[in-house]
Inverse folding.
């Protein structure tokens, strides 16, 4: 029983990371009906920016101060948000009225650009994060080991999802986001600056992805330039499972996928984890094609 509970704790931790990255996918799709394939690489960029801040200021293996950890997260969010805005201006805006396949090809090209750029800057080798970035606190609850890092990841992902949901559904600018997601032409007629809305989405989504990417580095204590494809793919699957375009759906899908992957790796085989994940995706699409909570699609009359 303790093994099962431990796998559930591990699954919720990984699922929280998936959920943070999945929120970026679902926001961009909600506005542009576009899958931002470079989003996973933006998350990894956040991990490398955070590593640069932490690794560049530590000496002698001493644990970093709280202000340095906060600075790493702030730097990751700022740099990745700027990268997201630059991505929208250069790769997506010129193709906004082109065939949808053109935007997909542009997204894949942007992914390769970020991936190779990180390889050139931080080298193709795996980079190791400093140990004890967060407080080394562990709780033992009936045979289950719970660390401070795991609690922080799960709590932060839930808190950020709630904050994003309240922002989109209970603020004036959030109303503009929802209006642009329903009909951009009608939103323009109502005086909404749609370009500004789209830019805000490319700031919020990458910012959440940067936090998720830095959590990956802190939790697994390593980062490599090409891991964005794996985590981005899992986050994309999580968004589909929950209902792409749906903020609570992305969160639910991420947590469920993390739990499923953890149980599959622990009780079946880690080598079959990816195949089992795609099997789950196929099953959910067969039973409920719009995802568990349903894709947010407006009806036009």
């Amino acid at each position: 029983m303790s093994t099962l509970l431990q796998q559930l704790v591990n699954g919720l931790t990984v699922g929280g990371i998936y959920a943070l990255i999945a929120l970026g996918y679902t926001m961009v799709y909600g506005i542009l009906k576009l899958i931002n394939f470079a989003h996973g690489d933006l998350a990894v960029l956040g991990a490398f920016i955070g590593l640069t801040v932490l690794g560049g200021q530590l000496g002698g293996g001493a644990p970093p101060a709280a202000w340095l950890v906060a600075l790493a997260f702030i730097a990751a969010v700022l740099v990745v948000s700027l990268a997201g805005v630059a991505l929208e201006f250069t790769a997506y805006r010129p193709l906004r009225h082109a065939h949808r396949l053109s935007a997909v090809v542009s997204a894949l090209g942007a992914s390769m650009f970020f991936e190779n750029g990180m390889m050139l800057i931080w080298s193709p080798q795996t980079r190791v994060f400093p140990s004890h970035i967060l407080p080394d606190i562990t709780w033992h609850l009936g045979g289950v080991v719970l660390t401070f890092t795991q609690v922080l990841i799960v709590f932060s992902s839930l808190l950020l999802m709630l904050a994003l949901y309240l922002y989109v559904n209970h603020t004036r600018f959030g109303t503009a986001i929802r209006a642009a997601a329903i009909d951009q032409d009608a939103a323009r007629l109502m005086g909404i600056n749609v370009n500004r809305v789209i830019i805000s989405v490319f700031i919020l989504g990458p910012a959440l992805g940067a936090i998720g990417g830095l959590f990956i580095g802190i939790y697994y204590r390593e980062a490599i330039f090409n891991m964005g494809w794996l985590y981005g793919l899992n986050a994309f699957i999580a968004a589909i499972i929950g209902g792409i375009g749906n903020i609570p759906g992305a969160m639910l899908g991420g947590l469920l996928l993390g739990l499923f992957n953890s149980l599959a790796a622990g009780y079946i085989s880690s080598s079959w984890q990816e195949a089992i994940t795609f099997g789950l995706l196929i099953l959910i699409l067969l039973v409920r094609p719009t995802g568990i909570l349903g894709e947010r699609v407006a009806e036009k009359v």
Q: What stands out?
A: The first helix runs from residue 2 to 32. Confidence is low (pLDDT under 50) at residues 297-301. Residues 77 and 207 are 5 Å apart (CA to CA).
